[in-house]
Amino acid sequence: MTPVELSRTVLHAVRRAVDAGELAVAVLPERVVVAPPGPGGCGDYATNVALQLARPAGQPAPRVAELLRTRLLHADGISDVVVTGPGFLNISLDGDADGRLVRDILRAGPRYGHSDTLAGQAPELHAAHDARAVVLMDAVARVLRSQGARPRLTCAHPPEDAWVRILGIPSDILVGTGAGTRSDTLRPVPAPADPTPLGRDAARWALLHPAPHDRPHLGPGHDDEHLAQRETNPLFRVRYAHARTRALLRNAADLGFTPEPGPVTPDGDTQGLLPTLADHPRVLTATAAHRAPDRLARHLVAVADALAPLLPSVLPLGDEKPSAAHRARLALAEAAGTVLAGGLTLLGIDAPDHL
What we know:
Blueprint: H1 3-19, E1 45-47, H2 49-57, H3 61-72, E2 78-84, E3 88-93, H4 97-108, E4 124-127, H5 131-146, E5 152-155, H6 161-165, E6 174-175, E7 183-186, H7 200-208, H8 223-227, H9 234-255, H10 273-278, H11 280-290, H12 293-307, H13 324-346
Parallel strand pairs: 4-5, 4-7, 5-6
Antiparallel strand pairs: 1-3, 2-3
């Protein structure tokens, strides 16, 4: 169960409590925030939704939390719920939660995190005649489509041929001002130099990885940092991590075993990776809502960095025979590679199997 799915489960429990007359709340929250428990908490995730509902419901927060706890204990995928402090709900997922997360990712493939949350919406995005603004608009549109929206793209002037040919900008962007329409006008800080000499992948990353209000590092003295194949280059770390997962799958096949999702021992090699993968759907939702592809870019760097400690322990060493633990770790690595590939694709960047 991902954090997004758990959030929906908790919200469903709230709605059922209201429908049953246990809670008298006129306006329900649109979403419930779940996060790793803080000091004094326990379990896998915690939420303060009971504290939010206490005042409008006219009941003490611990009473609201206990009502929701009773309902959540019957939900699939939840093994225990504990009320702590002034009314925090601490939720433990059942023992195979890690395996289910990996299976969900592998089943969805690069579309993991895609949803129909924005189905029926057709936002209009407008960009100035500027390379960074147009690349930003294209990336935002890709993420919006992943959430079910059908965005309409307009630009003050037709895109330059080099932007279409090198940067991968759609050639069918409509020409318009955006004036008189309900449009999202994207105004990132312009790039200080022409990004096209970097090529499509490095140029798009250089334009999208910084927040829109930050100035991209481009031009003399900076271009090498986007092309260098070393750890200081975040794009290289992301693409290298993805390529390593593909290499591990090839090497495992040579050794005669395949990935099989299952419980993974929560040690230093994996404790940061699983929550990061589970957070991917929320990151896509936030990226779409805030029109901020930099959120997705930074998340991919976090996935790659969390994956790195796992990689040396995936394959058997020496005369060691492949075990269930190796198959589960291989599946986890494949899932991480899948998230990296899907995220890069949404940014319009290639995810090669070999580097």
